[in-house]
Amino acid sequence: MTAVTAVAPAHRAPELAGQTVVVIGGSAGIGLETARRARLEGADVILTGRNPERLERAGRELGATSTVAFDAVDPDRLERFFAELPGAVDHVMVTAGGPYYAPLAEMDFAAARRSVDDHVWLALHVARNAIGTVRPGGTLLFLSGTGARRPAVGLSVASAVTVTVALPALVANLALELAPIRVNLIAPGFVDTPLSAALLGDRLDERREHLRATLPIGRVVGPDDVARLAIHLMANTALTGATYDIDGGQQLAGG
Fold first, then answer.
1. CA dist., res. 66 & res. 59, Å (int)
2. Fold annotation for 20-245
3. Is the distance from CB of 226 to CB of 247 less than 8 angstroms?
4. Structure pTM?
5. Strands 44-49 and 134-143
6. CA-based angle 236:162:223, to the nearest 5?
7. Does the CA dihedral 171-177-178-179 come out positive or negative?
């Protein structure tokens, strides 16, 4: 008989120890969970958001280095935010803004333009401000989605701006232009966040039950799932210029 010696698992070192993570849109949902997980991995975090009260609560909860309340779509205010950072940072994640869904006949063009500002123009302004601020080998992380990849009535803006055309192409090009800063795009499907609740209203529970019954993973994707991917993209220095889907198999199930 051969004796088997049990070996205690080695303690894993925090992946972001000594680093600084900026989360633009970090007071709730995916941004907040990413900031929380970054703290668990040893990082200092700086949070921004539009809602001062909610942002202050999030900052206290996480022990954030600082919180700054402003509308990131304002390019002058965004530039001032970067200029006032106390030093270089390692990672910037942008979760501000949400999707815009409407059929053409009912489209609010002001809201549609806001969606373009929230995604394409915000990404470009963040990228330009990252030069000289984000350390070499650090990351810019942007957020998109998978829900509008299949054509359907009401998805024109969401598909063109965030999913199939603008952001994936923009991220690939920025990865070359900003190198050695790395640039990546996270594309979730449905994620159970306050934003999803606001969009679905009284249909939220129905949507959750449908996904539990149809997704290959058998459960709804939560903000912590996306946060774990975000931390991996920050820590793995071989990854740049790509779009990473995280939807629990939603595209495979057709839902």
1. 7
2. Rossmann fold (3.40.50)
3. no
4. 0.86
5. unpaired
6. 55
7. positive
Which of 112-116, 187-191, 215-219 is least confident? Answer: 112-116
Per-residue DSSP letter, 9: P
Write the CB contacts of 152 (distance below 8 Å, at least 6 apart in sequence).
none
Question: Exposed, middle or buried by CB within 10 Å (0-12, 13-18, 19+), for 228?
Answer: middle
**Strand ranges across the sheet with 134-143:** 66-69, 44-49, 20-24, 89-94, 134-143, 182-188, 243-246
Residue 7: band (very low, low, confident or very high) from pLDDT cuts 50, 70, 90 = very low
Q: Say if CB 45 and CB 58 are below 8 A apart.
A: no
pLDDT for res 3: 47
d(CA 236, CA 228): 12
